[in-house]
């Protein structure tokens, strides 16, 4: 992006969802490596820090009472309860990055994505699809980290997640990694050109006709 383009372009919210084992983490890592300027919002959580985690770095660690108060005020653009602990993403830091022209990437589940859709409806929502159930089983088994029960649970979850794919903006099938990455990259770059994210550029170009006249 040209340096002078910053005043004409708002940042893009890019949301990527996929069933476990589809290869989402790999594709997102490839995208971050090529485009390292993605914004990152530090989430809030009510769970205790683990190991060398630091407040404000991995998470903003807060009490359950504070989290509930923030939720009641509508401070979160998405939140969830996982294993008895709350997790949430604050809206204002994300909006600040977007207003500065910085893109923000969300690696999130479909329920969180549906919440984000309400706040950041101008965003780009991508669902990654496995090529088949058989291939998803092969990949889950190949990781060597999941028990048979865990794999079966992930496959059952995948059915529900796939049923939600219909409301996403784009589908990318991760059959061949390089091809899937090129599609994800193309979706991201196309999203940067959406008219709502470039609110001033058309008027500025039109003005050059007046200036030349």
CATH class of the largest domain reads Alpha Beta
Task: Tell me how many strands there are.
Answer: 8
Q: End-to-end span in angstroms?
A: 28 Å
Q: Output the number of helix runs.
A: 8
Strand content: 15-25%
Poorly predicted ranges: none
Mean pLDDT: 91
The shape, in one word, is: globular
- Give the fraction of residues assigned to helices: 40-55%
CATH topology of the largest domain: Rossmann fold
Tell me the name of the CATH homologous superfamily of the largest domain.
Answer: P-loop containing nucleotide triphosphate hydrolases
List strands and helices in order, with pairings:
Blueprint: E1 13-17, H1 24-34, E2 44-45, E3 60-61, H2 64-73, E4 76-82, E5 85-90, H3 91-99, E6 104-107, H4 110-119, E7 124-129, H5 133-143, H6 148-163, E8 170-173, H7 177-191, H8 201-212
Parallel strand pairs: 1-6, 1-7, 2-3, 7-8
Antiparallel strand pairs: 2-5, 4-5
